[in-house]
Amino acid sequence: MATTTKVQDMAETDLENQIAELREQLTTISRSLSEQGYELFENGGSAFDSMRRSTRRAARFVGEEAQLVTEKARENPMTAVAIVSAVAGLGLLAGLSAYRR
């Protein structure tokens, strides 16, 4: 009986030590995750700002190109009509071929 009690005490002590170690590890992991989450939030904000700047540059570029296309269309109206007609025709053919499948 004394041996059983001694083994139980050792097992309890071992389990208590393991639980204490697990709690320490859980605290460390929780702290690490909260720090990373904060860093991700900060990086997310800078990524958003970078994306916003890139979007503005792209919009500016598209606007400039649209203006150039408009000027060329005014200089050569027949060419512009031919190009628009060709694109419309290709779109119509693509739509018909997709409809038949």
General description of the model:
The protein is mainly α. The protein has one domain (2-100). It has helices at 2-75, 77-100. It is elongated and about 105 Å long. The N and C termini lie far apart (84 Å). The model has no long low-confidence stretch (mean pLDDT 81). Keywords: Membrane, Transmembrane, Transmembrane helix. This is DUF883 domain-containing protein. The chain crosses the membrane at residues 78-99.
Features of the shown structure:
101 residues; 2 helices; mainly alpha; single chain; 0% strand
Describe the secondary-structure layout:
Layout: H1 2-75, H2 77-100
Keywords: Membrane, Transmembrane, Transmembrane helix
Protein name: DUF883 domain-containing protein
Transmembrane segments: 78-99
Structure, briefly:
With 101 residues, the protein is mainly alpha-helical.
- Which range does the strand content fall in? under 5%
Give the H and E element order: HH
Strand tally is 0
Average of per-residue pLDDT values: 81
Query: Gyration radius, to the nearest Å?
Result: 35 Å
Number of individual domains: 1
Q: Structural class of the secondary structure composition? A: mainly alpha
Distance between the termini: 84 Å
Largest sheet: none
Point out poorly predicted stretches: none
| Fraction in helix | over 70%
Total helical segments: 2
